[in-house]
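Q: For a teaching handout, I want to show students what a protein-ligand complex looks like in token form. Below are the inputs, and the small molecule is protoporphyrin IX containing FE. Please produce the holo structure.
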Amino acid sequence: MFPWIMKFIPGPHKTVLVKWEKLQLFIARVIENHRRDWNPDKPRDFIDAYLNEIEKHADNPTSSFNDENLIVSTLDLFFAGTETTSTTLRWGLLFMALYPEIQEKVQAEIDTVIGRSQPPSMAARESMPYTNAVIHEVQRMGNIIPLNVPREVTVDTTLAGYHLPKGTIILTNLTALHRDPTEWATPDTFNPQHFLENGQFKKREAFLPFSIGKRACLGEQLAKTELFIFFTSLLQKFTFKPPHNEKLTLKSRIGITISPASHREQKGKQEESACPPLKARRLLRSEGTNRIE
Ligand code: HEM
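A: Here is the structure, written as tokens, with protoporphyrin IX containing FE included.
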């Protein structure tokens, strides 16, 4: 009710507030750099285009186009666009390591359609129904935003006979769709056949990881492109397997999104505290087998 009060209360949330301020300062500097060589006729990116809007509405004191909103909107794009896509990819690699026969089929399709030397492009997706189905199934099972993003009713509303007074918080249950036993042949098991019919990719209405309607994910197309390009590029070059004598599970961790729990979490802090690039190199060596002869 009084979010500003949190500033004055001690506790771990203070770290978040400090980091939030640092991020805002960082973006403010990026915006200043943009302003230096900004050309309104040639917007290079989101910040340039937003600066145009600030300029256009400069005489309107009630305009929402201002520096503060530019900073927060830029950060929104980073928050909404990074963790979501990377977490989905992590689920993808985990499912590939758990289902080697499915991974082999994806790699066979990559070898046939793209080959091993040229980098994957979106043009190939049309001819890769199996890989496309696997990525969709990763999103269905990963179900990274199970209750969608909370929304608030802005005016008194009646929905399906229920009265929703202004200010009501709405959570939509995407899990109910993604695990609906009347929609999916094996709702709780990874099964790319859910998105295939006679060997062709099949769209499913009960699949809504990006939500639907006016406020649906605005990054959907970008996310789909990233998922296809990163997933195929990784499987073109590597085969993902559990490390020797280690068992992988589908246990998850609750955070901003639902992400795979590290199978090494129980093994003590040593791995966790390793310097991140070193840790990444070690994991790649032990979990990804190079496919290049
Ligand atoms: C696998 C990746 C992603 C998933 C599963 C995902 C999912 C979602 C969901 C469920 C929502 C809430 C929609 C609603 O309330 O009805 C949302 C909103 C949003 N997403 Fe994504 N997203 C992904 C990637 C991205 C990317 C790459 C970007 C941009 C760079 C992005 C930007 C946004 C923004 C700005 C919103 C808020 C839209 C609004 O309030 O009108 N997302 N996303």
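A: Two things your students might notice: The first strand starts at residue 151 and ends at 152. The pocket of protoporphyrin IX containing FE is lined by residues 76-77, 80-81, 84-85, 88, 144-145, 148-149, 151, 209-211, 215-219, 222-223 (CB under 6 Å).
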